[in-house]
Amino acid sequence: MGSQFTNVLESLESKYFNPLDPEDFRHKAHKAVDFIADYYKTVQTYPVLSQVHPGYLKNRLPDTPPDTPESFDTILSDIQNHIIPGITHWLSPNFFAYFPASVNSAGFLGEMLCTCFNSVGFNWVASPAATELEMVVMDWLAFMLHLPKSFMFSGSGGGVLQSTTSESVLCTLVAARDRVLNEIGMEHIGKLVVYGSDQTHSMFKKVCKLAGIHPWNIRSVSTRVEDEFSLSPHVLQKVIAADVEQRLVPLYLCVTVGTTSTTAVDPVKHLADVAKRYNMWVHIDAAYGGNACICPEYRHFLDGVEKVDSVSLSPHKWLLSYAECCCLWTKNPDLLVDSLRTNPEYLRNEHTESDSVVSYKDWQIGTSRRFKSIRLWVILRSYGVENLQNHIRTDIRMAITFERLVSSDVKFEIVVPRRFSLVCFRLKQLNGFDTESMNRKLLERVNSTGRVYLTHTVVGGIYMLRFVVGATLTEEWHVIKAWEVIKEVVNTMVNEYEWKST
Amino acid sequence: MGSQFTNVLESLESKYFNPLDPEDFRHKAHKAVDFIADYYKTVQTYPVLSQVHPGYLKNRLPDTPPDTPESFDTILSDIQNHIIPGITHWLSPNFFAYFPASVNSAGFLGEMLCTCFNSVGFNWVASPAATELEMVVMDWLAFMLHLPKSFMFSGSGGGVLQSTTSESVLCTLVAARDRVLNEIGMEHIGKLVVYGSDQTHSMFKKVCKLAGIHPWNIRSVSTRVEDEFSLSPHVLQKVIAADVEQRLVPLYLCVTVGTTSTTAVDPVKHLADVAKRYNMWVHIDAAYGGNACICPEYRHFLDGVEKVDSVSLSPHKWLLSYAECCCLWTKNPDLLVDSLRTNPEYLRNEHTESDSVVSYKDWQIGTSRRFKSIRLWVILRSYGVENLQNHIRTDIRMAITFERLVSSDVKFEIVVPRRFSLVCFRLKQLNGFDTESMNRKLLERVNSTGRVYLTHTVVGGIYMLRFVVGATLTEEWHVIKAWEVIKEVVNTMVNEYEWKST
Question: Where, per the database record, does this protein carry N6-(pyridoxal phosphate)lysine (chains A, B) (predicted)?
Fold first, then answer.
């Protein structure tokens, strides 16, 4: 080292703060693994729905951060004593609410590797493996779903990992919007109309408003119980025709395969036929239901996909990925990039300039992105396609068990036919008492036991309970026990009601 | 178990697919920890910039996923042989590009715990601890930054964890937009004008277009070298006044504390004074520079923050969090929620109905969200405020070392005064050769050694090299060695050029 450095070096303190000593990391991370494995072993002993009251945590933690370090043991003990009581245990085998989160060892290992490299792959050169593995994995999943080549990199399209369906819809909607506005002029943004059904996920309206679509121009087409709450192509046609007559411009249709409330499936092919008459962008939101389409017997729900422009599906919902993981495929990557491209000098390099590589920052909202594909890659390889299909089928079989239990009890009814692993059911009318308030009470009492957690919905004016099988640790006996908890609560209620009505 | 279940049970296969056996998880996760610790130990032996060519991975991996399981050992060996060669090692101590990613043991442990619970905390009841810990941590960080109470839950505002600055800007921009459109009418969206400088991050234009702002109405106010590329309040005032004269409506100003190219700092206080004359929403993008403001000696860069509406800062850039972690605080949570609220039946519960709790899904774009606050909480507690300040100061001291080395060499010049841990420098004019192409060649050659990675930018027409200290494993000797690599390359080039010019 040359003498010119001596002064510089002497002027610096010798002590550096190095918070990534590999041996310290190794020691503590092993400790964390044991903590987590023990949690997974005991998770079913906790109340599945947290029983704390709003504001519980504030009084247990200091108002300000510590000035000096605290030990990892202290932190783990605080997690055990203060955090875990406030957790609603999504991993509990007794979790049947919302759509459960499907987790697993391989997904966890994939997360660890994603974190390990912390590759911020906004463009190819920033981490070639991150970009290229994502392209491979997206094509693998497209293959599993029998998507047409037009959605694959090995064909003329491609896929990208987003965090949420909202982001997938926003990115494709904006691509569709800009294509049309480039033709008719930006000043006509107020004329653009988007379409979904009254069962389309609530994010749709929010995302459309984010993109500057006039709230009056967001159509939630009514569905009917006779159609099992799916969007009718005939009704859609009429709604669009009326808009066109008003000189509005039909822009985007969101078709759902597996709605959140009841897992209704919109008829993709016929809806796409209608929308394509008006040159609309058609997107399939298959966040939950699409996962089942890796099984040949459910693939027909995607029939007609070759006619649409984009499809999204969330493996974090049912294909063993931890949150946040939403797959988006499109036939029109160029349109996505036209709308979402940035080209700052500090990210330019020979590869991006020659257009020879994918820059995933131009396929999403943000600039930074994690190395998410490695998680999916580890999952797909660790289990293989057959086991993943088996996983979907096992969950559906357990849902059928629950469905049969409900059907065999005269006090209950199945409200909407089951399609996947969700059963929509309710207590029937009893002694003249209000059905909705009885079912509300049932839900509240069942959840307050902490032994099982389910949620509700209202569709077509009917209040119903939702029981979804999907938590990874759930086995059939958990389903049967859940039903017993429900029956116990109902029996208590029946006694109370009989007492009241006498 | 009642006899009515017997048939149902017999009709089911007895084998369940359970991919989360706690002991299997424990075994493999320990293996992953060792793999990762070993990677951290050896990361500096890899070429920091990946040396692969586009398409390298496709030919190394099968076109389709396996039907049956592969072992974790096989997968780890593929990661070693096929993935690691394609990785640009953001964790390498020789990484001085972009803004490096600051990682650490505590952040990793926090990630593991976030993954462990996989709490999808879209609203309070879905995981009370996830919501309440986020509120605590956001107030802790606000306290560390001396933000006014008006940005804290303990005051009248609050904070939320986003994934990226883009999302923070999109959410606040839409809140600002809707407030104004509610007054002047949605049909006037084409009149809204937003303001940044020519140094504002490239995401700004993209996000504004996403939100339906007319591309013509996105102002990139020119900065000057005399102002060190910061936005001049005087010039801004003139630009806004001209727009108002055209009957346009000033909406939103994005002020930057630490621009990406040169870490320029816009004068918050004076710019806010100008913008507030026009009732605009003022946002501070302090993604990188804001992290330094936890040290009292840098806090003045946020002076005037009490006048703005929102601030965002990314701990994944410099405060030891893994990607994706962007903190957003606002004085106006109600306006954010007004624009971003969804209220589907299936997520309703007594707490959301009574408005007694925060529903973080209404503070962000998507519905799902990870339990990110636990990562930051573990970091803040494991190191304490003093060490985090020490971390910032250490990086800046190392940047000063590099700055002095550059200054001491007559062939080089510092192009923009250093503010934080970024040094912008270049080779001076040499023997009549073109400065820009010489510096381009220098960068290309330095990076192709694999011994160090830095990037470039162009500001005010000047091509310059960026050297940022921030990778966690970097110690002073890495900085000195990097400078030696640069000098070696320059000496070779000087010899070549002298040969050419004779």
Answer: 317
